[in-house]
Amino acid sequence: MFGQLNGRRVAAVAGAAAGLLVIAACGSSSSGGSASASSGGDYVIGNVGTFSGAYASSNIGAKDGLDAWVKSVNASGGVNGHQVKLIQKDDQLDAALALREVKELVTQDHVMAIVGASSIVEDAWAPYLASGKVPVIGDDLAKDVMEKYKNFFPEGATQTTGYFFGLPKVAALTGATRFGAIYCAESTACSQIATSQKGQAGAAGVSYVFSAAAKAAAPDYTAQCLAAKNSGANAIALEVATQVAGRVAAACEQQGYHPQWLQAASGFSQSETSVSALDGVAGPVPVFPWFASDTPARQQFQSAMHTYEPGDFSATSNGYSGAAAAAWASGAIFEAAAKQLPSGKASGADLTTQLYNLPKNDTFGGLTPPISYSSTGGPQPAVKCFFTIQLKSGKYSTLNDGKTTCRA
Description:
Blueprint: H1 2-15, H2 17-26, E1 43-49, H3 56-75, E2 84-90, H4 95-107, E3 113-115, H5 126-130, E4 136-137, E5 152-153, H6 159-173, E6 178-184, H7 188-204, E7 207-214, H8 222-231, E8 235-239, H9 242-254, E9 260-262, E10 282-285, H10 296-308, H11 322-338, H12 348-356, E11 385-392, E12 395-398, E13 405-406
């Protein structure tokens, strides 16, 4: 059923571009279209992310990807005849602001779900939502909240797989033996990832030999590069913002240091194709590779992004990215559950019930690894499989024949 829905929406996007642009022009970028639903009120969803400041380059794709998904859905008639209204918030890397914004989404805007979050300061607001009835569908998967709270529903490989295991595993797959990490200094999640990789390195097939923090605002990264070089690490995970990754790699290049560079999830962006120092960078992505178009569901993403976010395809944009794919996949999961809502039922609790009822090991048309949700208590099951990609000569491609790699 979901594959048929994707096919219809692909055709709708491709065949009615003029009408779609009219809809986009009539609504703000945060609402995804202002037309009222034909059989009831709007389905209101919220989104919060770090869309400005030093780490915006890794997160702005989530904003654009979800916005494109909402406009695509609404142009095809909405979900169950309901238009989807998207309210997006920029937390500006401010924990207190993020919590206020999430509370506003719940108490003032009455959202039925938070979808596709990409917030560096997610730890500030996650406990508030965990105590309520508003589900969170998808985030950047760099933190532990998707493996911590029952009403947080992952859209792809969760932290322990994608970051703790996935990065050293990809290092091993590329032939590296000595693994290290340069991680962001602004978030405890980054240091947690670097520390936790020590415990996973052996199982992934590499030894863990180095780690160092890096500030986004730092004028130079020579010290980190020399320390990494002296450690003998031949693979380095860049657990920093997209724009910072390029600067670190360039600094290391100046020191004659050329390890296998690694990134994960929202760290990847199309803008990196023009950064020569990052040529060869590889790593795990939690959902479908954003550049792929080999299934109808993925083609739908490509078509919608070109229609609604054409600026994201410029050489300097970070919008066409792994973050955009993760947010799009989150929207697709919301849609699959919302389509099963009984008439007149549109609360967060109603939606949560339908999330539990989704088919087990669903991939949502190839947008995700196999995912199963559970109502039996405790956090949702970890998603233990990821896709792998690599940048070579200015072009991304999938590794492992596009198949997922899984943690035992």
